[in-house]
């Protein structure tokens, strides 16, 4: 039942040789490069911002880092427990993006970008969460469109991201003060010169 749904959705989304070249190029960019936006935004939130908001921003960054640790670990575990071949390995549809023939479920890209999107939604602002959610959907679409993932791989990444954000929130509730203290201490040691110069926030 689920495999039938997976195949049906894949055929609806997957590009073909008749697809516009500009759309394939756009999808390739989205599949490979768009995900970089998320970590760059998180780094910027840590380093800069209004002084009255930077503390809250850094809490968000630390929670996001925790969520990513949980999501990557859970994604790897699920991949070992429920291995699933990629569409091009099974000879299904068309492939327009070179990729190693490793297991596809859940999608690593989907897991990471959905974790970022959910982190922004839960711990930053509604508008930024919605914006990052749109980015996540675009990345998810592009990797199915180009034939390197199944739609349910992306759903798996979303679910893993949800569980990881919940786990990060629970972890922060119990150990957040200690984590923040250690992270800020390490930051102030490593970035002592830029902080002193005023290039980044203390």
Automatic annotation (TrEMBL):
<feature type="domain" description="Phosphatidic acid phosphatase type 2/haloperoxidase">
    <location>
        <begin position="61"/>
        <end position="169"/>
    </location>
</feature>
<keyword id="KW-0378">Hydrolase</keyword>
<feature type="transmembrane region" description="Helical">
    <location>
        <begin position="130"/>
        <end position="148"/>
    </location>
</feature>
<keyword id="KW-0812">Transmembrane</keyword>
<dbReference type="InterPro" id="IPR000326">
    <property type="entry name" value="PAP2/HPO"/>
</dbReference>
<feature type="transmembrane region" description="Helical">
    <location>
        <begin position="60"/>
        <end position="83"/>
    </location>
</feature>
<feature type="transmembrane region" description="Helical">
    <location>
        <begin position="154"/>
        <end position="172"/>
    </location>
</feature>
<keyword id="KW-0472">Membrane</keyword>
<dbReference type="InterPro" id="IPR033879">
    <property type="entry name" value="UPP_Pase"/>
</dbReference>
<dbReference type="GO" id="GO:0050380">
    <property type="term" value="F:undecaprenyl-diphosphatase activity"/>
</dbReference>
<dbReference type="Pfam" id="PF01569">
    <property type="entry name" value="PAP2"/>
</dbReference>
<protein>
    <recommendedName>
        <fullName>undecaprenyl-diphosphate phosphatase</fullName>
        <ecNumber>3.6.1.27</ecNumber>
    </recommendedName>
</protein>
<feature type="transmembrane region" description="Helical">
    <location>
        <begin position="22"/>
        <end position="48"/>
    </location>
</feature>
<feature type="transmembrane region" description="Helical">
    <location>
        <begin position="103"/>
        <end position="123"/>
    </location>
</feature>
<dbReference type="InterPro" id="IPR036938">
    <property type="entry name" value="PAP2/HPO_sf"/>
</dbReference>
<keyword id="KW-1133">Transmembrane helix</keyword>
């Amino acid at each position: 039942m689920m495999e039938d749904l997976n195949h049906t959705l894949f055929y609806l989304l997957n590009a073909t040789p008749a697809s516009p070249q500009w759309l394939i190029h756009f999808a390739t960019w989205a599949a490979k490069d768009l995900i970089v936006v998320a970590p760059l935004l998180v780094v910027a939130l840590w380093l800069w911002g209004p002084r009255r908001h930077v503390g809250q921003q850094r809490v968000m960054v630390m929670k996001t880092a925790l969520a990513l640790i949980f999501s990557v670990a859970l994604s790897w575990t699920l991949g070992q427990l429920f291995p699933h071949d990629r569409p091009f390995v099974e000879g299904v549809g068309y492939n327009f993006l070179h990729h190693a023939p490793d297991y596809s479920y859940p999608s690593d890209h989907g897991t990471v970008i959905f974790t970022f999107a959910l982190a922004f939604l839960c711990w930053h602002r509604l508008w930024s969460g919605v914006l990052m959610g749109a980015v996540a959907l675009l990345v998810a679409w592009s990797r199915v469109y180009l034939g390197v993932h199944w739609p349910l791989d992306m759903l798996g990444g979303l679910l893993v991201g949800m569980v990881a954000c919940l786990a990060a929130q629970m972890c922060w509730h119990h150990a957040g003060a200690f984590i923040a203290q250690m992270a800020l201490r390490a930051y102030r040691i490593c970035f002592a010169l830029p902080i002193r110069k005023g290039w980044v926030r203390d």
